[in-house]
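Minutes, methods subgroup
Present: GH (chair), OT, SY

1. OT presented the first of two proteins processed in the latest run. Sequence and structure tokens recorded below as shown on screen.
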Amino acid sequence: MESQSINNIKIHFGNKYYTDLSPLTKDGFEVTRDFLLRVVQILLEFLKSSADRSSKILDFYQPEQLKKILDFDLLAEPKKLDQLLTDCRNTLKFQVKTGHPYYFNQLSCGLDIVSLAGEWLTAAANTNMFTYEIAPVFILMEQVTLKKMREIIGFSDGDSILAPGGAISNLYAVMAARHKMFPNYKTQGLKCLPQLVIFTSDHSHYSIKGTGMITGLGTDNVIPVPCDNRGKMIPVELEKMVVEAVARGQRPFFVNCTSGTTVLGAFDPIHPLADICEKYDMWLHVDAAWGGGCLLSRKYKGLLDGIERANSVTWNPHKLMGSLLQCSTVHFKENGLLISCNMLSADYLFQQDKHYDVTYDTGDKVIQCGRHNDIFKLWLMWRSKGMTGYEKHIDHLFDMAHYMIRKLNERKDRFFLILKEPECVNISFWYVPPSIRNMPHNKDKEIKLGQITAKLKGRMMDTGTLMIGYQPLGNTPNFFRAIISNPGVKEEDVDYMLNELERLGHDL
């Protein structure tokens, strides 16, 4: 059948239902093609709008309002194909445009088109990643790509896996560390363990505390280590707390070093922490979920100096690298730990007498059974950029962050930087409205600024013209945290952000 222009596809499908699509009907390919081309047209319209700076980021409605606008009901009778297309269009109409240049809300911003193409192909292939038998090309892609990432980290050997998010990647690291030090735990459980303790910075991701809950160690045994005024773990404090834990009869076994904290973007000092881990026989994990992309830039890889000394590393390409969600990797210096730790040898999946090399099967390396194909979108995107393109990508994000810092400093009377010289592309600040600009900067003023921040965020969402995240941190009340991880952001977009904050908040 000849190819068909997307502009000439069928607009309406009349009384057609899912039963008129392939493979449920023998002659359903033409309807299938037209239906999918209509879906693609809807997607392209969304992409065009997402890149249009004159369009809104979202049309915001409160949950109860949105439930009245959209029909979410699942009924007994099937809906026609035309209704399904309307559903697709309405879903995107009320969705946040995370690829919009004015979306600075999360660590994962932007929309890489090549990665999107990879995700489409992945969905069409619809395969599981547990055996080479059913995912041969994707399994080999995963091996090659993850080996490349280990080489960039500085691991000469080792093993890696793609996991459903950085929290699970960090969990795998804790599980592997425990298995390495106490292999009998796998069969005997908690009774064979001393009281293990984990150390992590005050500013680390909450998933580290979650590992204590999930693994049975208890959240009380995930010990926060104080940070300096830049948000970096203090090595002297870590060693002091390790000694105290030993004196209590506990067994310090795992240190989480954050390379790019979620709020301030701080990088814990790896070399001093590695020295302490070696001294007290502890596993060093580097959570570079956020900052790992800096390794692709000669200019910024020094932020992770010493990462090759880690036992394991989490690195999320769906953050600084710009891959579509989800795409998280965890890497181990020692090969064989993943399979040894997690293998359960289900003989209905992982038969050892297959007619190919079964070491290529990955299912027994993980605690999941079903594992989504997250590799193709990353591999294809990396192929599109090459190492040189990725270096430019990372350097551009930092250039934009530095530009924003300069612009904030030029408006010192209207904005207050929480961290004057951030290490990453997290920019933390308050907007200071005219009503309190002459007020001396003290705790009372900070409380007011925190209240203003929450109100201003509400205005942003109601107007749909800008999105920036906010949060408190320790004793510091709510402040904005703008993230520049969209490679499409330009200097004029940063200017717009600051101007729009002033416009929305001038009377607060």
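2. SY then presented the second protein from the same run.
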Amino acid sequence: MADYEGEASSGPTPAPRRADKPLPAICDPNHLLHRVVVLVFMCFLGFGSYFCFDNPASLQTQVIKDLDQNTAGFMQLYAWYSWPNVVLCFFGGFLLDRVFGIRLGTIIFSLFVCVGQVIFATGALVNRFWLCEVGRFVFGIGGESLAVAQNTYAVNWFKGKELNLVFGLQLSMARLGSTVNMNIMGWVYSKVADLVGSPGHFTLGISLMIAGVTCLFSLFCALVLGFLDKRAERILHKEEGKTGEVIKLTDVKDFPFPLWLIFIICVGYYVAIFPFIGLGQVFFIEKFNFSPAEARAVNSIVYIISAPASPVLGFLVDKTGRNVIWVLIAVVTTLAAHMMLAFTFWNPWIAMSVLGASYSLLACALWPMVAFVVPEHQLGTAYGFMQSIQNLGLALISMVAGTILDTRGYLLLEVFFCTCVCIALMAVVSLYFVDYLRGGDLNRSASSRASLLKEAEESKRRQSQVTEVDSAKLTPMSAFGLRNRYLSRLGAQLPHHCSTHLSSLAHRSVLK
């Protein structure tokens, strides 16, 4: 009524309502500049986790001396990180999807990382090693699940756009965190020792507390990402991101034999990489007479090479295919690198550089093969199981490696790592022949795989057209359609654009 009266009055006509001003580019969730801002926080989300994961490796000598531990006790710090992830690989995606949601889940897992690092540092401050182990366990609860959340954010924001580049950048930033840790924590410890007056467990605890600042920074990134994602949901009316990990443990019994071989390769390979890096600093000091700074630098070369090499090698594998051959090359070169470290006194920079390149190559070639072996609805279970047994293997081998080093020395430890890689090598050779007998799907070239995909899409398109025609035949006819059908059965010639099966006029080209 008020609008009507105002319209009838002789007063001035009110100005038309102006449309909302367009958002600046940096504030518009649809704009590339805004997504770049999101990507920056996304990359730094896991920086603190990766930085603090290898704190024990960068301070191996100090941890063993200041906390009065042997190598077996030292490696427990890595084992306790892996134990919770034997289970969380199955349930981390479920918690993010069904319980917390991606935004709250990311913040919660970031809090676990922060609290775990604080407990770890507190254990060093008060010289209670069992408390350090508790801290690493809590840290492990958040670490791997935070990586799942990071990948979910990437898919939610960049799917169909720059996703491959984003994954490469996230991996590079993760490796940057590990590299910075390897090269800076020894210097931090020495500076804290100068301030405190002497080295010891208190100095170690303060150093680890300082390292925990990176975890607080990652928590800040999680909070900002949650705010930006919530804002984008409100503006774009999109749903909250999902991990896409559908876990059904009953699917395990249906896994094909090639997938089990892939699992063996994964465990046999990675247990010869991460435990070695965890123990590498003292190895280079004792065998090659390196200074602590030089030992930390050569020990970090695997991560330094992996950061730029992973996107490049991933592009190479995508363009060539032949995944099994690339995995075979990666395993053989890794075995050669370990043998050089074990049986020669060649400059270890050579072997570690080879190890870094082969480590990146295997990651690019091995993990995508799971998608070639199992159907899409089993991918979540397959990857969860693969990560679970990988963490189980890392936990067990970390303890075994520490015991071997305490009782037998570095030579036998390197022989043990070579044996693990040999197991992976036998699994790769077996996978090659099994795949060959099954048609060679895993080792196809990229062009062959692309042509097969094109044929499958064409077949699917034809099937959908046939289904469309069949459904049209089942549709009740109109009076006009019945008339056409009756005339055709009498022998009358219908126009070329008419169909006797559809309820109205139809061009025959639609039915071809």
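Chair's summary of item 2: The chain has 23 helices and no strands.
Next meeting: continue with the remaining queue.
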